[in-house]
Inverse folding.
């Protein structure tokens, strides 16, 4: 699997450890979504957001995404209160892989500590540079398409 880092939109901010993007809106809200790199986790089948009104600290859970094999916590890129979760993604979680920077936004949030936490976010250029030496973290431990089954049964 290869990852085209040029797909990262220049008009967004990125939370590098979470592989989340943030778009600051004119109404003091922010829209949050997952980058196209989350496709490495597999096909998403379920999105369980925390309810609107929930207050979440930075790097704490906004909700969960599930694939057929695993559950992945969605960590908040900023401390916030959840204003809204995307009902389209709740209905069809696979939208996250098909349109990560458009229709598949995950949350609209009201940041509560933007002045102090904004420095933890990166622009697209900085995020690309941060990602480049770390792309191996997106490689699956087992290639499901390979004929070699020597790794069959190992736990990672």
């Amino acid at each position: 699997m290869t990852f085209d880092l040029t797909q990262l939109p220049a008009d967004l901010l990125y939370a590098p450890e979470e592989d989340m993007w943030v778009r600051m809106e004119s109404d003091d809200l922010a829209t949050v979504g997952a980058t196209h790199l989350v496709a490495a986790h597999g096909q998403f089948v379920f999105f369980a957001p925390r309810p609107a009104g929930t207050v979440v600290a930075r790097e704490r859970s906004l909700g969960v995404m599930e694939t057929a094999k695993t559950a992945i916590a969605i960590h908040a890129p900023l401390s916030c209160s959840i204003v809204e979760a995307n009902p389209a993604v709740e209905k069809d979680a696979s939208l996250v892989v098909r349109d990560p920077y458009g229709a598949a936004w995950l949350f609209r949030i009201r940041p509560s500590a933007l002045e102090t936490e904004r420095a933890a976010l990166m622009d697209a250029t900085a995020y690309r540079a941060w990602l480049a030496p770390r792309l191996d973290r997106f490689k699956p431990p087992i290639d499901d398409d390979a004929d070699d089954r020597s790794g069959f049964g190992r736990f990672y």
In short: The chain is about 15% helix and 30% strand. The radius of gyration is 16 Å.
